[in-house]
Design goal:
Elements lengths: L11 H22 L16 H4 L7 H17 L4 H36 L4 H12 L2 H5 L8 H18 L3 H12 L4 H16 L1 H4 L9 H17 L3 H9 L1 H20 L9 H25 L6 H28 L6 H23 L23 H5 L6 H26 L22 H30 L2 H23 L19 H8 L7 H20 L14 H31 L6 H7 L4
Helix pairs in contact: 1-3, 1-14, 1-15, 1-16, 3-7, 3-11, 4-7, 4-15, 7-11, 8-11, 9-14, 12-14, 13-14, 15-16, 16-18, 18-19, 18-23, 19-20, 19-23, 20-21, 21-22, 22-23
Length: 615
């Protein structure tokens, strides 16, 4: 028996490819909103040319993802037994699948039911639809999983791969055979032949159903790609050939793509029993995959770093959240009748930023991390170890979670304002106040009011985090308490103002939020005893000065001619960015400091020096 070929410890190129493929998936789904194919919801704008445009990624994107997923599973086998691999796959895939099917997908399905089935909106309509969907008649049709079908397939394919791996020497034998069979130009020719045959022989009969028990063309394609990645990840001969033929693969894809596009609408595309069409599809499919794998192996294999680490962890939560966010945003934004380009930009930004905001929140809450595809913190068991869920894994965990809310709150507030502006036709940034985005003249005031309400609640929670962080770092109880009170009042002002939209006089409760202008000074007061945070102190001082200057320039106080009715909107935008933006920066810095202190010994020389106290 040949000795086992162990995969390397890490392949950063495969991580980059997986991140990029999931990013393209989000753009692809945004494209489907404007396409002519049936999807969950559509824009008021549809474009016939989207039928051809989706071919840019459609033939190869998911096949590449299955290949990379198979390779990722093989990395796990180097450190675990088959039983451990199966358990790890179960713990990583099943909780998100159940959570997504019961929580995330129903939101999409309800919006689709309102859009296509005429179900009434509102809470009563949702409850009625939910009773139908999860009643006997609804469950008889199965539980919809929508975009989560990919998780179902990965789980099933992982079981098959582990069973094959249990057979001694089988995977090594398959890997040896693939390495011999695909040597040289055969790396391009044989996979193209296989892809052409299944496209010609299976696709006309089965299509792609995304239903596990009746999706035979998809299994012939995706399971083969998954097992191929599982078998070849450690075969350097194959990877050298991919690097060697990367330009050839790119050229094949570049030639095949326009031909495929012509075949979509040309009446003679099905000539010769559809063999030419299947061949061109297979050429594009495998040519692009070889190009991506070859260029990645050549240039990205050792290109790790904090950005890749962040994106790799964020990919699964983004995948889970993105389609629900996209469907909801389409439903909310569509009545505004925005120009197609503006609407598409709103959908892309809202989907990416909304998904990232979800990730930033859920990664800090240990109890729900596994539901979003994230590993439990510090390897703690989940969900059976209830004590581990309720007790922080290390010092300051609860404070850091609250500070994490402080990082997310400004991002949410600024994103909501940007989207609300884009959905308000004719909004004049120079002369109109932001509060008007939630008033009666706005097309979709719920966007602004709902987002600012949530941001206000988050600001109050962040204030508790700031106060507790100051107490943890300096022991200043009074300063910590005052800081917390200021933030809670500011958050209450933001949230309360949305309950009385402009021009209701009670909307002016938002002035409570202006107290946050003093928060930088209060933080400087609380951090006075620490000598190891000079840059944060300088940032806080600069923030206070900038806000003071902007306050002096307002037309309501001094120098009334500088800010006037013709430019007050721009003054307010600048003030708002500074007013909320600094909170995220300060929360992030304090979070990093708490993490640093938590990992040190309880009493160290550096802490003693920072506190000005003797050991």
């Amino acid at each position: 028996m040949n000795p086992p070929v162990a995969p390397p410890t890490r392949r950063y190129d495969l991580d980059w490819i997986r991140v990029g493929a999931f990013g393209l998936l989000i753009l692809y789904h945004v494209g489907l909103v404007y396409g002519v194919y049936d999807w969950h919801v559509h824009s008021a704008h549809t474009f016939a040319w989207m039928r051809e445009a989706i071919l840019i990624t459609n033939p190869w994107r998911l096949t590449l993802l299955f290949l990379v997923s198979g390779a990722a599973l093989r990395f796990m086998t180097a450190r675990r037994t088959p039983r451990q691999v199966a358990r790890a796959r179960f713990e990583r895939l099943v909780p998100p699948l159940i959570f997504g099917a019961l929580v995330l997908v129903p939101i999409q399905s309800w919006i689709e039911a309102m859009d296509k089935g005429g179900w009434p909106g509102g809470a009563a309509g949702f409850v009625a639809w939910l009773g139908h969907e999860f009643g006997w008649s609804g469950l008889a049709d199965g539980v919809p999983v929508n975009h989560l079908w990919f998780i179902v397939y990965i789980a099933a394919y992982s079981v098959i791969a582990v069973l094959l791996w249990r057979r001694p020497g089988l995977i090594e034998t398959l890997g040896d055979g693939l390495e011999r069979a695909l040597k040289g130009p055969r790396l391009l020719l044989l996979p193209i032949l296989y892809l052409t045959l299944i496209r010609w022989g299976l696709f006309p009969w089965f299509g792609i159903t995304n239903t596990l028990h009746w999706d035979w063309y998809n299994h012939a394609l995706s399971l083969a790609a998954f097992l191929f990645g599982f078998c070849i990840v450690g075969r350097e001969g194959l990877w050298r050939d991919m690097e060697r033929y990367r330009w050839v693969g790119l050229a094949l894809g570049a030639v095949a793509l326009p031909i495929m596009m012509v075949q979509v609408w040309h009446p003679g595309a099905g000539a010769f029993w559809g063999v030419p069409r299947a061949l061109v599809y297979g050429v594009d499919q495998w040519g692009v995959i070889v190009a991506i794998l070859g260029f990645g192996s050549r240039h990205l294999r050792d290109k790790g770093g904090p950005v890749l680490k962040y994106l790799t962890e964020a990919t699964f939560p983004l995948y889970l959240a993105h389609q629900t966010i996209l469907v909801a945003v389409v439903w909310i934004v569509r009545p505004a009748n925005l120009p197609a380009g503006t609407e598409a930009l709103v959908l892309v930004l809202a989907t990416f930023l909304g998904s990232l905001a979800v990730y930033e929140v859920v990664k800090r809450i240990p109890a729900i991390r596994p539901l979003w595809g994230l590993k439990p913190l510090d390897g703690r068991p989940w969900p059976l170890d209830l004590k581990a869920l309720l007790r922080p894994s290390q010092r300051y965990d609860r404070r850091r979670r609250l500070l994490g809310v402080g990082v997310a709150a400004p991002l949410l507030a600024l994103t909501v304002v940007a989207i609300a502006i884009l959905t308000y036709p004719g909004f004049d940034n120079a002369t109109q106040y932001l509060s008007e985005l939630g008033g009666a003249s706005a097309r979709a005031p719920i966007l602004f009011n709902g987002g600012v309400f949530v941001a206000g609640v988050m600001a109050g929670l962040a204030g508790l985090g700031f106060g507790l962080a100051i107490f943890a770092l300096t022991g200043a109880r009074v300063a910590g308490a005052v800081i917390a009170v200021v933030f809670v009042l500011a958050g209450a002002g933001m949230a309360g103002s949305t309950l009385y939209p402009w021009p209701d006089p009670r909307h002016m409760v938002i002035n409570l939020a202006l107290g946050i202008q003093l928060a930088p000074l209060l933080l400087l007061w609380g951090l006075a005893r620490r000598r190891d945070m000079p840059r944060l102190k300088a940032f806080l001082a600069a923030t206070f000065i900038v806000m003071a200057v902007l306050t002096v320039l307002t037309k309501h106080l001094v120098l009334p001619g500088t800010v006037n009715d013709a430019n007050v909107g721009w003054w307010e935008r600048a003030y708002a960015i500074v007013l909320v933006g600094w909170v995220g920066v300060a929360a992030w810095v304090l979070d990093r400091k708490l993490l640093s202190v938590a990992t040190e010994s309880p009493i160290s020389r550096r802490d003693a020096d920072a506190f000005d106290v003797p050991l």
